[in-house]
Batch of 3 targets.
Target 1
Amino acid sequence: MEPNHEEKRNASLNRALLILSCVLLSIGTCGGPLIMRLYFIHGGNRVWLSSWLETGGWPIIFVPIALAYYHRRTTEGPSTKLFLMKLPLFIASAVIGLITGLDDYLYAYGVARLPVSTSALIIAAQLAFTALFAFLLVKQKFTSYSTNAVVLLTIGAAVLGLNTSADRPKGESDKEYIAGFLMTVAAAALYGFVLPLVELTYKKAKQTITFALVLEIQLVMCLFATIFCTVGMLINNDFKVIPREARNFELGEGTYYVVLVLSAIVWQTFFLGAIGIIFCASSLLSGIVIAVLLPITEILAVIFYHEKFQAEKGVALALSLWGFVSYFYGEIKYSKQRENEKKKEKEIEIEKKDTPETADVCQLDP
């Protein structure tokens, strides 16, 4: 009975953590692009600064790491280590962090040139790349339901890209628009590679992956991504320009700094949510959750920035919801099948244990 109770407890904790991660990812996915676009709409034009803000909130992660440490200390005693990460895992996390820093720049460049509505192009490509790299790197198994979800979500997001030219910012040249488009697609491809790469790191790590360790991995990744973007800011003289840009910001100098701080915090919820879902489930699910949140981001962009809500966005919303339901229906169905299989395996094991005893009795009977 005890192992059964422990399994149920772990399953409940995993479910709670997965729900929390989905909430965090929802805040980051919807809020991040909107706040970043707010910066560019009202006078901000520093791409390296915007990319730096995507991971610059990494010190926030020290809070959950400290809480996890005190929790471990209550059970393990004073000898508990503050950090669990070993050198090979640190190096792997640092490399992924540098790749993430490059991806941050590509994404920020795209957002600076394109309206929020064209984030559909990012999500459409990102989900397809995530599925591809998840298959190649971590041998992700696809069911008919998960395949259906990927196809529907990708088509739904691509539909949003059919009429993006109508939302082109005023005064922007064809060259700038195309550059933003290409940078956006490149960012999608790169982050589609990063998500499965993180999952592969978990699988290949030569130490037990706990959520406390996952937080440390995220801390190192964000730290090195921020270092990458800091170098870009130094080369581009962004630090010197910030005070002048703040004074000229259309919403006021105080609001300028509030926008920067909020951007750093909200983007950190995105990364914490993404790595939490990878830890609890898979990189594919992380990509699917990001994709299904796209229509909500689109609606928020319409509300706050008065972007047009064309028929394509309504179709995309329907397809995205259909894909989301398809994926989770499949997961529920296959989890029930796995539970039934485990029950049958246990019954067979019990029968095997009972069989020798019966045989012994029969031999003693004569």
Target 2
Amino acid sequence: MKPEPLRSFSSPTSLLIRKPPISPYFLFTFLAFIIFAIFLYGEDLRCIIGQQHHLHLDHINPNPPPPSAATEKHQIHDTKLPFSVGEEEKGCDVFSGRWVWDPVNHPLYKESECPYIQPQLTCQEHGRPDRDYQFWRWQPHACSLPSFNASLMLETLRNKRMMFVGDSLNRGQYVSMVCLLHSLIPDNAKSMETFGSLTVFTAKDYNATIEFYWAPFLLESNADDAVIHRISDRIVRKGSMNKHGKHWKGVDIIVFNTYLWWMTDADFKILHGSFNDEVKQIVEVSTEDAYRMMMKSMMRWVKENMDPNKTRVFFTGMSPTHQMSIEWGGNPNGRCYNHTKMIADPNYWGSDCKKNIMKIIGDVFRESKFPITFLNITQLSLYRKDAHTSIYKKQWNPLTPEQIANPSSYADCIHWCLPGLQDTWNELLFSELFFP
């Protein structure tokens, strides 16, 4: 018998009559799938409805800010980054957003509970009277950052190496990462050791290490000594990435940074040949040319020595130095000293962050075929003049009477208190690692 041909129905009623009933089993299965999808892709769903979601978050404030921060609960208003690397991808740009007061979820750990913070960064221990700088959360415009999950991070690092390479600012981010994780590890199952330029935190039960390697220029330089490196006449050896790079091979996650040490008031000195040569051939080039040479050397080394299927490569952008308070309307002779509020102007960009250097980074990354993730922390950090260590740190040399009379003169406006801003850098690193 031939099957009956399909025919149209004369009314909606006939459609309902002929439609097979939906079984309770199907409904139960469908609902179970929806619940599973929400659990598995919750962060992605929040990203999709991020605009509506964060509008509600902004008004949830169970603990209003203290009077000192009340006028600064000025969440940095909607704005795009004034200068970004490459073209912005569709979707959520986690580096474009505003700071939101969040004393419920921040800080992510206590200064007194992390023994690995260097005395240069322990601001509370060294007398800082306020803690407002610890309570701010970065809120992207188009979505919400996933909460930092220390258990997931540690499990991901099982049998792996994670390494931060660069200067003292990258060391601060490294220590922040250790502080975010160490409380989940028993005291007898963790250690931190230093071997010259290399510092290694070991989570023994995970067979995992989080490491920091001191290389302020990435290339070989006369500032490579991990202890004695305060050299004003800086010289970098051209094409010498292997000098340090041999210690980076085999890592599973690597985070580079280098910027501040390149910023001099004069042309930069590049050594052709070896530091051991009796007669040294040194050529002076512009800072821009020197920095571009380094970036190309780094990318060439990464391409030749890293497997993109095994290693995730990150590069942290410029960290601002709030040395000139006149740039944000402050005292002409002031710096970051005694600043407990962030910069409210969403378009603020200080002279300490060179846009020509940002352009070089973008140019080199666009030319490279090796996948590398850029942590564009510059703009969000530019607002945070309140988060530097200032005078609240260990002073390696006795202060002079002149310095004591003028605290602004010796305030450290380069490094950041921990806990604080650099924990946000690692929240962004976590986001890019697991939710790219």
Target 3
Amino acid sequence: MLDTTRSCLWLWLLVLGLLLFTTNGAYVPITYVQSAVAKGAVCLDGSPPAYHWDKGYGTGINSWLIQLEGGGWCNNVSSCLVRKNTHLGSSKRMVKQIPFSGILNNKRIFNPDFYNWNRIKVRYCDGSSFTGDVAEVNRVTNLHFRGASVWLAVMEDLLSKGMRNAENAILSGCSAGGLASILHCDSFRALLPMGTKVKCISDAGYFINTRDVSGGHYIQTFFDQLVATHGSAKNLLPSCTSRMKPGLCFFPQYIAQQIRTPLFIINAAYDSWQIRNILAPGIADPHGHWESCKLDIKNCLPSQIKVMQDFRLQFLVALLRLGKSASRGMFIDSCFAHCQTEMQELWFMQDSPLLNKTKIGKAVGDWFYDKKPFQKIDCAYPCNPTCHNRVYDDPHAPHS
């Protein structure tokens, strides 16, 4: 009897291990765009751009999904110097292989609409959501602000490797990459043949311009400094920069309505990164009253929940500036989360978050293939029992 029990336990652990392995999908090797260096299309430290490519097959051989990596930004020389010595500023610091999961998964059961596409993860090493454009390199810092050139060099490399024959194409991204997928959406479409079906997805990239808990404009000042440091203004929408200062044109609420390519917005109304870094950044909370709340939404005081409910309303007002369009998709849940397309348990699993009884992966697939439109906004926290609310372990850990 004991041997039978042990055998069953061993078999259960084996099955669990195989499941965890398969949900992550394959490990995909890195590709360096060495030819970009001569063009000045380089990371902050001057190293070449890079991406990971899992090739398409079968019915997906001429379909391309580009996922832009996230990772915040650097807004001045000091923060960019720190970033330069990490994988977010140098391809020399990047791991050689990464697992593909969620929207990048190569298993039909976990990614039914895009599993056999060409799936590319573009690494993020410029600190400006691929908008930087400063020709001169400072000899003291050796910082290169060339994000826009990096974007173009990677796209040209992929076009030469078959993307120019794309029948379907998606530009997607998470966080700073989700913002980049909005900023570059129309230019991505312009690179591809006229007959290509092209759409864009922004995951956790709809950052809003709002006051922090001290009443200050921390994020607006941050974006002003970022745009000035990286010389980003010339790569932001002229229809925006012609009527307001360039830093504001980094906020989706002022530009997204002008994007002509179909766009799907995936965002938590209580986006954990925005709560931690826009609503209650450390500089606006010097005594740490928000630290416990920012670690786990269950720790928040009623007064803090009230502030977060007000933040949600401001987020929805900013979002609704998009206007009405049948071509746009929207999945706005009321979870305390950030980046929901790359994590398998959030994208498409049995217990994934639901809106209108629909998982994110299903909503996006139906929208892309024009099977069914999806524009849903969740009720206020804590109404959605399917949420996977994020819990942070270390209050001093780098913000994702």
